[in-house]
Structures are given as structure tokens and as C-alpha cells.
Amino acid sequence: MKRSHLGEFEEIVLIWVGIQHEAAYGLSITNAIQEEMNRSVTLSSVHTALYRLEEKGYVKSELGGASTKRGGRRKRIFIITNAGREALESSREMRMRLWSKIAKNHFPKWEL
Question: In a 10 Å sphere around its CB, with 0-12 CB exposed, 13-18 middle and 19+ buried, how is residue 42 labelled?
């Protein structure tokens, strides 16, 4: 299992996988990013990020049940792994360290 740096979009997608806890799939994440973040994204870009995250070991996937609504097709459900949680925590800690430096060095009135 290859693990590496999280890109900004991968981090957003991974956060949504965590938020949607065991109910995350490509379209649900795409809709969430568009609605909650007011950001235009394509389903294919979300799928690409999900598969990269899976290669890195940050998510795992399984096929959900078939539905007549989907013409008998099954959804691929994504679940965050412990490694994915650790990657998000590491990313958050790094961002907080960086924010604290900018606040102290350049914007002394900022309080975090």
C-alpha cells in the first residue's frame, strides 16, 4: 500500500468520505462539494481522486447493493481507513502550525 502526500483536492474528497461515514460514493461527494463548498467539480474528478486515495491506502471501497433506481447497477462505497484518518490529522496539524506562524509573524492581531 503506497502512502504519500495529500493534494488539496484529495484532502477535500477524503474529508467528505469521513463526513459521509460509510455512505460516501462519487456522486454524493460531488454534490456535497458543490453544495456545501460552492465549488464546481465533475464526477470524474472526484472518482479520480477517490481511486488515487484508494491506491494510497487512505480509503477502501466496496460495492453496495443494486437498486432499480440505478438500473440494477451497484454503487461503489468508499470508507476512510485509519491511514486516511492519520493523513487528515497530519494535514490539519501542519496547517495549524503554518497558520500560527503567519499570525505571530505578520498579523499579530490574529488570534487562533
Answer: exposed
Q: How many residues does the chain have?
A: 112
SS3 65: strand
> Domains of the chain (ranges plus CATH)?
8-81 (1.10.10.10)
Predicted pLDDT at 60 = 96
DSSP string, 1-62: ----PPPHHHHHHHHHHHHTTT-B-HHHHHHHHHHHH-----HHHHHHHHHHHHHHTSEEEE
Q: 95: which DSSP letter?
A: H
**Residues 60-80: tens digit of each pLDDT:** 999 887 677 766 777 899 999
Cβ partners under 8 Å of residue 32, min gap 6: 16, 19, 20
